[in-house]
Every structure is written in structure tokens, then in C-alpha cells.
Amino acid sequence: MKPKASWSLVALVNVLLPIGILIFAKGFFPYKPFLPGLAVRDAEDVVSAPFDKVIFMVVDALRSDFVYSESSGFKFTQSLISSGAAIPFTAYASSPTITMPRVKALTTGSIPSFLDVILNFAESDTSSTLATQDTWLAQLRATGRNLVMFGDDTWLKLFPDFFLRADGTSSFFVADFTEVDNNVTRHIDDELQQKDWDGMVLHYLGLDHIGHKSGPKSQNMIPKQAEMDGIVQRLYRAIETVPELESTLIVLAGDHGMNDAGNHGGSGVGETSPALVLLSPKFKQISKGVKCPAEFREEFDYYTKVEQSDVVPTLAGLLGTAIPKNNLGIFIKSFLGLWDEASQKRILQSNAKQLYEIANARYSDFDKRGPFTAECNTYDSEADTLACLWEKAKEGFETVGYNPEEAVKQAYKFSEKCQDYLSSTATNYDLRLMGLGTVIIFTAFITSMIYLLPMMDASRTGAFSFIFTTILYGITMFASSFVEEEHHFWYWTTSAWMVILLLKERRIGSSGIPILFLLGFLRLLRRYNQTGQKHAGAPDIVRDFLTPRPALLWILVLLTYCDLIGRLSRKIFHRLGNEVAGIMSIAIVATAIGFKVSFAKQDAPELLPAWLDKILDATKDVSLVNQARTVFIALGIATAFTIFIDRPASRKTAAYPRTAQVLHDLLTVFLATQSRFTNIPLLGLFHIMTLLLSSAKSLTTLDVSFTILLLQRASFFAFAGTNAISSVDLSSAYNGVSGYNVLVVGLLTFVSNWIGPIFWASAGFLLLAKRAEREALASVGFAPGQKKTDKEMAEIDGVVERTKGEAFLRNTLVFTAFEAGSVVAVMLACTVLRQHLFIWTVFSPKFLYCMAWALGMQLGVTVLGGLVWRWGSR
């Protein structure tokens, strides 16, 4: 007897998905252990400090070329670099390159946990506080010094009750380029006159927001750089002229960089190469200056390259504090010249001893290893190599008359190797939790398949293709290159499936022309937005064809919107008459067009043709927030009217589900509102593809489900999605939002990045309902126009509803089985390859994307959305 699926079973299996994922995540992303308490300097390590105050100025996403290149707006800073008053570096920021983990690295000197990627987006989270950890801020407070902070409120979350005065701003409101920085700058003049602070933190966000909205080549970028340079000039002039500030060190640092799309989070050279400049007139005694601006560096490795964590021990030496206990940084050699040889030796001794404490805690019996007679680089064991280097460094510290230069050299050898080994030390994974999570998801996968297979008899071709694709996709998850270039898998798989459908069409005597057009459109999708890692900068349609032709781009955008007007006017507000329906449809879509044009004026005015100025004139007095809210309110009213008022009281068997179609069209307007305007034409193309699929004659309901699954994945990449955190698009996350709200912004961020999959999920429900209705009518021999008695029609309606119900149930199981199978594959890959070089740069981000697909698309769209559309199609 075949097992029979039910909605209760589907609900149970889908409940297992978040449970298994969260359990695995807890084992895979634990916090790294840290040494508790504050470090205290030994008397023998104390040296005089050249500075007693510090201004720590972070410019979010300050990529190295933004400061050092010829096109930079940091002209004053460049003049200081040339004179020797400022010493420049490129500070390597390891992945994940987002604010919270990078601030942790800049303050503790340690390597943050990858879990901070998630915590970074939860502004209300307090579990990631550094209140109990050793940082250079804690060290300043321990020596009786006061701190003030203005800017990104991430600092307030990490350092609660640390600051004498503070004014935080949300780091996620990316629509704001100006006020978010003015709110920082307005405090500077008053604070420079105050004498009660010893450390000032300034964290500017505007440059990062410009990058997210329109990329590093935005016309707003150079003016923003010049604005930040003006702040540096104001601070530097103050320490030159105000006696109380003459021993103040200025640190200008980027927490991370950005890629060519203006995003960050991954391990691309642009993302991992922020600028770092230390400024003071005192540096002229140790530096003659270097040429600045510098020639362009494709790898963004300007001047000396240091680890971002190296800032921490360097600040400790320059400010005269102990080095934080969990620091993995090394004192930067460029500043040793501020001290005599004896003091240099003590500074490096202090750094080496602090790193030794971490090594001693990390490796068992570290102190008992040896004796060491050979060269240290001959040992296979990390612990033996470090222990050998420590013995040589300790000899240099403790031996009277030991050559100071040799002592410094040995200290750096140990410290550098210690940094190398300890920075790459794997997370303490909880394999039990990882295994339990994997077993739970595997159970969901097997259960789904057991109940799905008996429902796949109607299309053996579709069944085989689905199973083969699921298995093959799971295998690719074990190769980093396949994960990075996943779009190729979906483009080729979707094209191959279309060829199979073409053969099916020809087998039943159909011309197959709709499928041929679909193959052509798939080729267009592949080139619309170049994505992935290896060919991210290769030519594509948006960058190389539409962007140089803004008039053509906007014609395509407006055609998409006009098509939506036509579709809505024929179906929406049915009870109010055709004339009112047409007017209301125009009004709804017109608000969306007005918002998008106004948004483009701020986002990329160079891509706005002059003939759209009339639209701008009509909306110039309305803020973007209010314009977006108008769009959302209009869509909300139309949706409510369609569901509760305009929905027909009864349906005719062969009628197309008009209510569901109207909801789909309204959803498309919403998706267009959340899309980058360069991608809006894709929604028009998707509609054409939907019509072509609808006209294909050989598709079964199973074929429809599998086709939609493929198109969802392919469209995700067509909209420029990748498996890298840096491709998360925040440009539309604040449409209609005047402040940070984690739920609203989270929802808008998800929608903005899953535009294509959400569209195809909705279109798939419509195609599924229509195809199921055809199959049901064919099974009872009913033809359109055929006369039947009321009793016969009622029986036929019952068959149609049962067929639809089974089709929607099978569709949900198809997506559930694939999602569970793909998550299991990624979990196994992360477990097996947990020591892999790319575990945190490739496989971990892929797991986060799996979470989004499973929790957002599967539960939020496929399951809940499917229930809504099922009800709407009745």
C-alpha cells in the first residue's frame, strides 16, 4: 500500500527544517573561547608612551584606494602622508568583512566568530557585547582615562556604559548619506574644547551607505571622501594648535572595504583591504614621508600591508597600556623608531609574552616541549615550532648583553608565527549538535521523498529529472568552486530541462515554439547580470548595454509598468466597473513609477533621461520615504479589496482564477518597487516566460513544479545574487522606513534579494492551478462550452478541487524534499570540510544562504504562500 501524503505531514516535515538548521548552526557557529580578565603590564615591560590621548576615527567601508589613489578625495591626508606626519598602511581585514566582527578585531586584536555575521544584522542583540573582554578601550578605562563616542551604535552595543558621552546612529539605514554623518560631526568642535576625555571614537557611515546604494564609482563618493578628509584636517589642526591635544594620536581606519558593487562581507580583495593611517606631527621624527597619491594597485595593497589586529598592540605601545589578553596582533615595526633600542626590546617582549599566554592555553603541555636543538622550521607540529621559537625569543629577552637587534628579530619571528597559527586555528565545533541537526534534516528529506515518490507517477521524465538534479546539486556542494559559481549549474540545468520539454512537445505533435523562445530567454538571463566570483567583472547586459543607453533602459522599465497597468485594469476592482478599474490601476502603478524615478534620481542620476523630469517635478516635494509608503498603502488597499470585496461569490469550472491573478500582478508591482530599476525589465520578461509556459501542451503538474524550482534558482542569480555575503543588496531595504526596525528591514531585505524566486513562486502557483484544472477536466471528459446540469457541474467542480489540492500538496513536497536535500548536502560539506581553507569564506556563507532559502523561501513563500494562493484560486 502506497503511503499517502497529507498537509499534516507537510507541516510536520517543514517544522523539522528550522529545528535542524538552528541546532546545526549552534554547533557550527559557537563563540570562540577567550581568556577572561584584563591584562596587567609587568614592571619590566613598562616604557614611556609618546601619546596620552587617541582619536579613533573609523570611516565605514574605507577601501585603501579611497585614501591613497590619485582619484581620492583625501587630499589633505595625502599631503600629511607625503610630509611624514601620517604613516599609511593597508590593513588586511579577514572575512567576514562586516562591521561588528571588524570592530571586534580593531578593539580586541582577536579573530571574531563567523556567528557575528548574523548578530551584525540584529541591532537589538546584546549577547555579543565586549563588556567583559579585554580591549584597548577597557585598558584605557583601567588606567583612569575617559572615553566618548559618536557614530555607529554598534560601539554602544559592544561597549555598554563605557562612554562618558555618546550619541549613536543606526548603521543599517543605508538610504541616508548625510544626516548619519552630520550627527557625528556636530559634536567634534565642542569635544575638542573639552578636557575630560582621553579617547574619542568617531564612526562615520555615509561612505558605506553610498557604496551599498550605488557602488564605489557613485558621483557621491568623491564628495563624501572630501568631507571625511575635512574632518581629518579639523582634527589634525586641533592637535597642532590646542596645547592639551599636542600628545594626541589620530587613527584613521576603515573597518572593511567594498567590492565593485559597493557591498562587502566576503573575501574579495576590495572587501579585505581597508585603509589605515596613523597621524601626528611627532611622526616626522621617524618618517620622511612617502609618495602620495600612489599609483593604482589592482590588489589594493598600497604601502605596507598589516593585519587589522596589529592596530591593538600598536595602540597599547603608543598609549602606554597593557596589550589586551586575546590579541593576536603584532606591534607595527614602523613605529619602533619612537623609542631607543632597550625600550623597543621591552615593547616586543610584552607583545611576545602576551601571545605566548594564548599559545600556552591553546596547546597542551606547551611549556614542557623540548629541548630544541634543531632549526625551529624543521618541526612538523605547530606547537613544537612555536615552543622552539618561544625559547629563542625568551633567550633574547633574558640574556644580559644579548644583541638588541637580534632580540627584536627573534621576538618578531615568534610573534609572526604565533599570529599565523593562532589566527587560522579552527573553531571549536560541537560535532554532536552538528550531527543532530544533520540527522533531523535528513529525516525530513527521507520522509518527504517516501511520500513524494508515489505521487510522481504521472511524469516519469519529471520525476527522474528532479531526483537526478537533487543528487547532482548535493554533490556540487562539496567543491568550493562549484559553490562560488553555482549560477552555472542552474543555468545549464534549466536549459537542459527546456530541451527535454521541447522533445516532449514534439512527441505529442506540438511545434514546441514556446519552449524554443524560453531557451532564448534563458540565454538572455545568463548575460543580464554577471555574477559569481571568477567573472564578476565580465561584460553583461546591464553594465555594458543598458547602462550606456539610459533612454532604452527606461523605455523597458516603463513598458513593464504599462503592461502591469493593462493586466490590472482588466481584472482589479471588478465590482466598480471597467472605467474605475482602469483609473485605479493607473493610479497604483503611477505611484510606483514616481517612486522609482525619484529613487533613481538620488541613486544614479546619470542614468535618468531628461524626458523623465516631469515625473520628478510632480514628486519633488514628497520624500522618498513617503512616496514608498504611498505605494505600499495603495497596494495594501488594492489587495484587501481584491480578497474581501472583489472576490467572486462563486466560480465557473473553466474560469481562470481571477483573484489569484490580481494578487500576482499586485505582487509584481511590489517586487518592482523593491528591485533595482535596472532589473525591473526582468519582471516583464518573466511574465512573457510565464505565458509561454502556460501555452505548452505536454507539461504535467509535476513538470510545472520542477520547472518553477529551476526558474527560481536561475532567476536568483539573474538578479545578481551569489553565495557571497557581499552580494546582499541593501539598497531597497529602507523603502518606506524612516528608522531601523529589524523585522521590517529584514523582510524588505529578503524580498529585495529574492525578487526572482518570489515572482516564480507566485507564477508557479497560477500555472499549477491552471494545469491542474486542465488535467481534471480532461479526466472527466469535459470540454469548454459543453452544457452540463447543475449536479454534473458540482461533481466536476469537486474533481477539479481535488486535483488542485493534490497538485498543490505534491508541489509543496517537491520543494520541501529539494530544500531538505540541499540543506543536508551543505551541512555535510561544512562538517566534512570544516578544516578546509575556504570554510569561512565559501562554505559558511553558503550555509547562511541555505538558511535563507529554507526559512524564507520554503516556509515563508512556498508553504505559507502556497496556502494563500490555494485559497485565492478557489
Automatic annotation (TrEMBL):
- Keywords of the record: Endoplasmic reticulum, Glycoprotein, GPI-anchor biosynthesis, Membrane, Transferase, Transmembrane, Transmembrane helix
Q: Which organism is it from?
A: Ascobolus immersus RN42
Instruction: Please give the function described in this protein's UniProt entry.
Output: Ethanolamine phosphate transferase involved in glycosylphosphatidylinositol-anchor biosynthesis. Transfers ethanolamine phosphate to the GPI second mannose.
Question: Which GO biological process annotations does it have?
Answer: GPI anchor biosynthetic process
Q: What is this entry's stated membrane topology?
A: Multi-pass membrane protein
List the record's Gene Ontology CC terms alphabetically: endoplasmic reticulum membrane
What pathway does the UniProt record associate with this protein? Glycolipid biosynthesis; glycosylphosphatidylinositol-anchor biosynthesis
Q: What is this protein called?
A: GPI ethanolamine phosphate transferase 2
